[in-house]
Amino acid sequence: MRSARAALGAVLALLVTGTVLVSLPGTAAAAEDVRTEDARVPSGSGADAVELDTTLYLPASATADAPAPAVVLAHGFGGSKRSVADDAQDLAGRGFVVLTYSARGFGESTGQIGLDDPRYEVADLSTLLDLLAERDDVLLDGDGDPRVGVAGASYGGALSLLGAAYDDRVDAIAPQITWNSLTAALFPSQTGGADGAQPPTTPAATPQTEGTGVYKRLWAGLFFGVGSVPTGGLLDALGGGAGDAGDDEGTTEDTTADTGGAAPASAPSLPQLPDLAGVDPAAVEQALTCGRFRADICAAYQDSAATGTLTPEVAAVLDRSSPAAVLDRITAPTLLVQGTEDSLFGLGQADANARGIAANGTEVKVVWYAGGHDSQASERETAELRDLVAGWFSWHLRDGDDPARGEDPGTGFQYPAPTGLGSTLGSVQGGTPSVVADAYPGLDGAASTERTDLALDGPLQPVVTPAGGTPAAITMVPGLGSIASALAGTAVEIPGQFAAFSTEPLDEAVEVVGAPTVDLAVASPSGTATLFAKLYDVGPDGAQTLPGGLVAPLSLTGLSADPTAPTEVTVTLPGIVHRFEAGHTMRVVVSSTDQAFALPAEAGVYSVALAGAGNGGSALAVPTVEGQAQADGGTSRWWLLLGAVVLLGLLGWAAAVLWGRRRRRVTSVVEPDGEDVPLRFEGVTKAYKDGFVAVKDLSFEVRRGQVLGLLGPNGAGKTTSLRMLMGLIRPNAGRISVFGHAAGPGAPVLSRLGSFVEGTGLMPHLSGRDNLTLYWAATGRPAEDAHMEEAIEVAGLGAAIDRPVRRYSQGMRQRVAIAQAMLGLPDLLVLDEPTNGLDPPQIHAMREVLQSYAATGRTVIVSSHLLSEIEQTCTHVVVMARGQKIAQGTVEEIVGTGGAVLVGLADDSDADRASAVLSGLPGVTVERTDEGLVADLGAQTSRAQALQALVAADVAVDQFTPRRRLEDAFLALVGES
């Protein structure tokens, strides 16, 4: 239970706070010194009066003589002022006066949550603007009017929109991953028109529900669960008052924020309750039920949770907290940031905000990024978003002659470069490169979005909805996005509960940027239907990917009951940024259930078909947006290179499909020098679905009789390379050959290879001998070919070889596993970290075994982090870093043929004679130190030659140690890479 609570807490920390900018560790050193001032600010009056816990960040440059523009940072739902502390420090370091605060009902602020109600939370923002207007270090536009911007994510983002609508003193805003209509977000139905045009003019135009929709049950439950923790609100209701509230930082967000996002091991403790004598029992019951929520919001949630329907009373509460109705009042330049991995507030919410604000002639810039409530942004993306927000405020808040104003950020459109990768439980390393367009299509006079029609095919299909909606399809989990990602791309659709319509395999890649649309024909005996539409990417092997893990709920009414004359419905699929590769298929799936939503209790059967099925069927209209790939700085160039590597891998796969026979003929040819080159890597690349490139363009070869050391830090790609060699995974590009034959899963030539990689794999209940016997029997080869006794001798376990493995130490298990790799005396022996768990005498013995083994003409490859052992064991070395080869050669070549050596003598009286012998060698200089003689051998004399010269002169050498070892060379090489 504790681990379950921790996992839930971690999810809540990501999804409920809705932080975009706060996901990075603290920024680099601020540009100037920043001091802070904490204060409790009264706001409101009467029963609605609260105290807001605030912190003001003041840069040293902001003075009465040189006042600075201000920024108010609002936090996400469940957070507090501490949630945005890093962002405040960053903006203050750029010269802004920054005010952070905990919204009413959160952190140490008093009061109850009103969901950004204009009467409460928005009024609180105006109070804070009054506070800023009183400071002489804040730039003013007039009496009582500070030069100020407002930013925030999710809950804080909606506040910035509403604040700009209700208080015209706000000069610029930067709302992130927030809503346009809270009603449409929690009761969505993506049917009908979106922006009054068909097809829609903007790329992610999504219908904003009017009347009814499908209740987003899991998301709403998480919201209410976080806000219903009975802390300060409970004490206020019970008469404890603000003074008794204590530290209200025991909410989920505040606890997780303090621990870097990890949930607490146990539930937070409640503050001490006051004496309940004489307290109204009704107030107690409401406080315990509703926690920190206002009574009308609590009642709206309870009604929605009980019925799953949108009543006028519930709609009134949600609409009051929605910017949708007041966008025409916003004149502050607006930077809209929305995430592509967001099943709570999708791209359609930002699209609606952009259209509504731009209709006033207000400047709007739209930025989509790879992240959202379901997936944390990468560090690079977070840093870029911080720069975008700071740049937006610099341009719109600073005076025109201020040298820190920077460049005009414009009103363009930026989105992550589309890839064919699915949603993941985390962002890929380094982030996703951006594509920049001059304008958001269809906005403020810009050209409408281009859409491509793709023919769909599929018959009319019955779709069953089970009683109570159980079992239900699993596609989206709040905070985690697509559950399919965690199941290796396997969608959890229930047979009989969905209809599917597919395109033909694509002749060329299609990049979808926005919300596709499709016309369906639906019939229902009851005249109503609840359905869920989604767009899958289906690979040639049938594997399905659900981009972003996103689903479009459909609440349909007024349907025909006659399947032969169904009602045609326009459906807007989720807004996505995704590349459908050539050879892939687009599949529209319409299901009757989804576990994240409230479902009808009654069973039924719907009929679903493509509209116009008798006239060639419906088309899937997919939006595309042309833009320029952004390549600023080395990181972006690296990602473009990564994209190129992935693209080359995909092109290689396509070539394999088209020219499979020819390729099989080529790879079946045995290389003529195969017996002399037991192993050859040629341009081998391995990239995973999340975009991570583990091995890149790796080429090297190993000759017969060599002991090759594979070196590199953790993550260098060593184990991945060995796994590809053994056929456990396939490379995306390049060729691996073993004894001249192409290596791959099941290749016969792999029988000449013995390996020990990634764990022993021994059965603990069997003895060491039985494990070896069973392993060899599984190969199907004769027992006499195993050379069992020779392998057991290598293990060096004595009588322990006949005891159960579960009694073995780690070192004993390691030795049995190495013996297992040597069964049959393979011509190529591959060992990954073979000395783990061995003591020094065992390591010494292992060294002798491997050297003797190679002396018979066989070849050994050793991957190890013990550089001294590689130096003493191996003849040759390949050094890797970040998936690439950075050096290859003999150990002496890597270390250096010369270098300095420390010469220790058995008899100090031999020092003069030893110095004379060494000085007489070509290029050698000698000096005396407290440690002994140090000889710099230069480039002409090897260590072996120097030692031989001393021995030949009868100098008793007690120590002859290189001053530069393999470790030094390795660190230098890795550092240089």
TrEMBL record:
Compositionally skewed regions (Acidic residues) per UniProt: 245-256
Q: Which SUPFAM superfamilies match?
A: alpha/beta-Hydrolases (SSF53474), Galactose-binding domain-like (SSF49785), P-loop containing nucleoside triphosphate hydrolases (SSF52540)
Q: Which residues form the signal peptide?
A: 1-30
Residues annotated as transmembrane = 638-659
Molecular-function annotations in GO: ATP binding; ATP hydrolysis activity; dipeptidyl-peptidase activity
Cite the residue spans of the region called Disordered. Answer: 190-209, 240-274
Domain of life from the UniProt record: Bacteria
Instruction: Give the UniProt keywords, A-Z.
Output: ATP-binding, Hydrolase, Membrane, Nucleotide-binding, Signal, Transmembrane, Transmembrane helix, Transport
- Composition bias, Low complexity: 196-209
**Which part of the chain is the ABC transporter domain?**
679-907
Quote any Pfam family the record assigns: ABC_tran
Q: Which InterPro entries match?
A: AAA+_ATPase, AB_hydrolase_fold, ABC_transporter-like_ATP-bd, ABC_transporter-like_CS, Galactose-bd-like_sf, P-loop_NTPase, Xaa-Pro-like_dom, Xaa-Pro_dipept_C
UniProt lists the family membership as follows: Belongs to the ABC transporter superfamily.
Query: What is the name attached to this protein's record?
Result: ABC-2 type transport system ATP-binding protein
**Species annotation:** Geodermatophilus nigrescens
